[in-house]
Design goal:
The protein has about 210 residues and is of the alpha/beta class. About 25% of the residues lie in helices and about 35% in strands. α1 links the parallel β3 and β4. α1 crosses α3.
Length: about 210
């Protein structure tokens, strides 16, 4: 059976630099009826486990370590036995949320994660966070961008551990080079495509945030 993409939205809070905001997060599940991976275990381990059903969870992949993307990861890992994977550059952020529980493995640029006959390539795309990554699945015609690229522009860079020129460089060099029909599945909000976002790069740079 070919891999498919399941989607659920979970709600909670995002906290950084002394502020807290209510947020809705996209949780993406990639797999078939037998096995799957979860991209960003946000807020609600019970809801994510219910969406998985009886499938074996191969890995919990964190696009970055802001608390709203990882807060449910340890509970989901404990429940399923799946390893939590995170880029090493985001460990300082991870420790703000889970100081007593380290990730189980490191994501590295170019690493390939295989599930249900589908390969997802890790693209290190710093800027929103130092260890931010995207997951490109050419066989599914999609890229999971976390908070690096949204419909309408780059992720936020106004808080600690983030940098606007860096995120623009990541998007220009690692994402906008993908086929234009590639569907961009984001960490929050609606999906888009590479082709829809690429013409606006100069506009984002001029806007400067």
């Amino acid at each position: 059976m070919a891999a498919r993409i399941d989607h659920l939205v979970t709600s909670g809070t995002f906290s950084l630099d002394g502020g807290t905001w209510d947020v809705d997060n996209n949780v993406w599940i990639v797999g078939d009826d037998t096995e799957a991976i979860v991209v960003d275990a946000a807020h609600d381990a019970d809801a994510i486990a219910a969406a998985l059903g009886g499938r074996r969870l191969v890995a919990i992949v964190s696009t970055h370590a802001h608390n709203d993307h990882i807060d449910a990861a340890p509970a989901l890992a404990a429940r399923t036995g799946a390893p939590i994977l995170l880029h090493g550059d985001d460990l300082p952020l991870w420790k703000q949320t889970h100081p007593e529980r380290a990730p189980d493995g490191e994501l590295t640029d170019g690493q390939v994660i295989a599930v249900a006959g589908t390969e997802l390539t890790v693209l290190h795309t710093p800027g929103h966070a130092p260890g931010a990554v995207c997951l490109y699945a050419p066989g599914l015609g999609t890229v999971f961008t976390g908070d690096t690229l949204f419909q309408g522009g780059p992720g936020a860079t106004g808080r600690s551990f983030s940098d606007f020129p860096t995120i623009v460089g990541s998007i220009r060099d690692r994402l906008l080079t993908l086929p234009p029909e590639t569907v961009v599945r984001t960490g929050h909000g609606d999906s888009t495509t590479i082709g829809a976002e690429a013409p606006h790069l100069d506009e984002w740079i001029a806007r400067g945030h």
